[in-house]
Give the backbone structure.
Amino acid sequence: MKQKKHYGLIVGILFLSVLSVLILTKDELLNHGQKNIEMSPKVDSIQEQDEVYEPKKEDRENCATDDYWKGVLQEIITGDCSYLEHNEQIPLLSMKNTIENDGFIYNFGEVKISKKLPKGYVLAVDYGNHKIDENSTITNEYSYVILPVLIENRKEQKDSVGINNINILCFGEDAKLKDGLEIAGMKTKRNQRLKNFYIYDLEKGENLKTGLMYIVPDELLTKKCGMVLKIDNSGVMAQSVADTCYVKIPIGRGEN
């Protein structure tokens, strides 16, 4: 009888020991998994990668060197800026270079595409065919295109830069214009209901580090399509060839 009691006691101790090991192992696995989750890149960490290109050149070198981009540039010349004199002199600029327009300097960072609204960005439009959820994540066939940029006032006096004068032209695989898109938001702490939401006054030599955000149909973000950024800080319509910049965006065809 005593032997049975001892045997039962031993079995009980062994059971408790095994149970303790299992509990500890489970906790370690959970903790390890939690560490992995915390260390994994987050979708909304896009703003942490908004590094700006180091300036390489500050000129108007034409980067329309192959048949596709020559076709795009011709489409721009005969369409978007056909009203300008000497419009055939307009080049297609590279986003990897420093861009100058109306006394302001633009240095762009790496372009990002995301369905999720990046942290720190404000969506300022409530119209369009895109659909968003309660977190402003796009749920249909559209995506946010993010262009980090550093803008500097090189003028001799204080002046205003209009972020809303920077738009995107989307071209199909035939190099024909398919869509023109206005800015949809930007990286800012401003309230989107502010009257002059997109207008910034910059002192001489002052910088504005921000990000431009556009909502683009996914069908225009393929490898066969191209996108061009149009910068015209002079207002609604440029007065001369020097007032307008067309910059190849490194997405799709622009990656080459």
User: Anything to note?
Assistant: Residues 2-39 form the longest helix (38 residues).
